[in-house]
Amino acid sequence: MEKKFKRTLVTTALPYANGPVHIGHLAGVYVPADIYARYLRLKGEEVLLIGGSDEHGVPITIKARKEGVTPQDIVDRYHTIIKDSFEEFGISFDIYSRTSSKIHHEMASDFFRKLYDKGEFIEKVSQQYYDEEAQQFLADRYITGTCPHCHNERAYGDQCEACGTSLNATDLINPKSAISGSQPVLRDTKHWYLPLDKWEPFLREWILEGHKEWRSNVYGQCKSWIDMGLQPRAVSRDLDWGVPVPVEGADGKVLYVWFDAPIGYISNTKELLPDSWEKWWKDPETKMLHFIGKDNIVFHCIVFPAMLKAEGSYNLPENVPANEFLNLEGDKISTSRNWAVWLHEYLRDFPGKQDVLRYVLTANAPETKDNDFTWRDFQARNNNELVAILGNFINRSLVLTHKYFGGKVPAAGELSEYDRATLAEFTDVKSTVEGYLDNYRFRDAQREAMNLARIGNKYLADTEPWKLAKTDMDRVATILNLALQISANLAIAFEPFLPFSAAKLRRMLNMSECRWEQLGSSNLLAEGTELGATELLFEKIEDATIDAQMLKLEEIKKANQLNEHKAAPIRDNIEFDDFMKLDIRVGKVLECTKVPKADKLLQFRIDDGLGGRTIVSGIAKYYNPEELVGKNVCFVANLAPRKLRGIESQGMILSAEDADGRLVVITPADEVKPGSEVK
Questions:
Q1: What is the DSSP string of 77-103?
Q2: Residue 7: what pLDDT?
Q3: Could you count the other beta carbons within 10 Å of the beta carbon of residue 262?
């Protein structure tokens, strides 16, 4: 039997304060969380919706350095944009705060210290790159070098974006500091680690046995992580922006952003309710839910629960209804490429149309798989559903009432068999929508709410009260009374989904109250209730408006293509003698095979004119092995041998990197003998 709770704490993933919020964030996290919180409030339940900006971490320091400002300047700018956008969009946070606040620093510091004092951390000394010119340790993204797999010379310390391989900074060949350009040195540094492996048995039991009702995408990702075996995870790092590690001898170290950010849920609650925050976090009668995107599943289902369990006094989440990703016009949303619909820009371009975007994002919610947002679908759903179904029914019901009954709810007479059949169709709308909402199926719940409007539209179309007005006003009164009762039901059913439109509809119906328990009733509006002025709930969106948005995206795409086609900057000059040290030769490919368990690597057997050699190259993504056999290729012959996946590679095959990152093997235009030198 499902446990009953006294209250519900709803948290939303903290948006990272180095840029604005886009529709992917809204569809994945904030719209569903707001729907759920509004639904619970409508039921009269005690609920908190907690949000805030995530304001620490390396990307913010990188952005600040590029702009020549402080990290605080960056987070102040974007926190304001994000908070104001959420407020205007109707995300009904009880508090929206930030992790740079004093109360958060104190809370995160105290949380760390309690775990530290309990002996819950492992201390490890490891070697990390240090920039002697800048006099600081370097985060992975502050280090560039040559990828040991595909030899891309602009790989980062955490990943090579050319071949996609995850890296450690110490894997890079010829590493350089992105701050000073100098070659960093390895120095010992001490950090604290949360031993997730210690909590693996608990997590296996709690999630895999205790929460089989979680969404399949959430449960599956958790199972995959646990089955692979959990490893200790660092909770500190060398950086000057963040919550200082509250331990003696930890100068220049801050809490890792993944550790301090979820504590922001707690600190924001405490900021809102300084005297009663603990009942929301420690009382077992409180149900806690985390609304997040799929990229945050591991942190909220494995890491944060391990932190809370280690601390010992906090509740664990009852559910984590994470969504998948939303794409834009068939392409992955990318902040770096500006390929997004930004919330603050939408609010400017579509004033008063918050509910249209809320409706479309919910209708296309990526609840169990990635989904797509297109402007044409946005227009179609507005015009064909919000305007033609919901808006049309409401407008006809109210206009006819004003026309025939002076704007007052008429008395219902004897119901026909068709009237009773129509009433029967919407009496179970409450249980249907409620069932979907209780199981976090917001797309289905909104569709059922819209079905109520479809019932109303069909009822008016079938009964045609405007024709009966010539002969049977008593029948018209009954029809319009029933239509107005359906309208009042719609004001309740759509309150969680379309709050602005629902409020407008309640004003037009002069509804004095709005409670979830009333949904499905046929007596919501009393006879003689005077209606307010009739307004259009929604208006048609014209092609020209959508064309303007499509043009904006087209210009962004062109700008991205232009940037992608710009050649990489020329590197520093070298001496002629340095170039002459390179021995570049032509060889014929005798054999070419994929390297087992290495998706990016191909193994070549080359006729080099000197007896042959083996070379491993990271170009499997761009070539099938058989299409390279028999080709002449250029290779560096005097590169020191290097082992890749246990295979000794005796050289480097030369490739050109295209604007889209594609690697193209360099071949001579004419047939030449293997071993010929390239000069």
A1: HHHHHHHHHHHHHT---SEEEETTSHH
A2: 98
A3: 24
How many angstroms separate the Cα of 521 from the Cα of each of 410, 432, 447, 493, 517? 17, 14, 19, 12, 9
Cα 434 from Cα 320, distance rounded (Å): 19
Q: What are phi and psi of 640, to 5 degrees?
A: -55, 135
105 or 2, which is more confident: 105
Residue 101 and residue 403: Cα distance in Å, rounded?
Answer: 57
- Confidence (pLDDT) at 336: 81
Instruction: Please give the pLDDT value at position 566.
Output: 59
Question: How many Cα atoms occupy the beta-carbon half-sphere of 557 within 13 Å?
Answer: 12
State how far the Cα of 442 lies from the Cα of 367, in Å rounded to an integer: 8
Predicted confidence (pLDDT) per residue in 377-431, tens digit: 999 999 999 999 999 999 999 999 999 999 999 999 999 999 999 999 988 999 9
Q: Summarize the confidence of residues 73-84 as an average pLDDT.
A: 97
Q: Residue 195: pLDDT above 60? A: yes
Domains by residue range for the chain, with CATH: 1-118+261-372 (3.40.50.620), 119-233 (2.170.220.10), 374-566 (1.10.730.10), 576-665 (2.40.50.140)
- Burial of 445-480, coded b for 16+ CB within 10 Å and e otherwise, reads bbebbbbbbebbbebbeebebeebeeeeeebbbbbb
Residue 300 identity (one-letter amino acid) = H
| Residue located via tokens 């950090």 | 191
Residue type, 610: L
From 328, 302, 330, select the one nearest 317 (Cα to Cα): 302
Beta pairing class for 185-194 and 122-131: antiparallel
The answer to whether residue 325 scores a pLDDT higher than 80 is: yes
Sheet with 143-146, side-by-side order of all strands: 155-156, 143-146, 173-177
Per-residue DSSP letter, 294:
G
* Closest of 674, 667, 636, 676 to residue 653, by C-alpha: 636
- Count of alpha carbons within 13 Å of 298, Cβ hemisphere only? 13
Q: Which pLDDT belongs to residue 597?
A: 77
Q: Are 529 and 510 in contact (CB under 8 A)?
A: yes
Query: Is the predicted pLDDT of residue 194 greater than 80, yes or no?
Result: yes
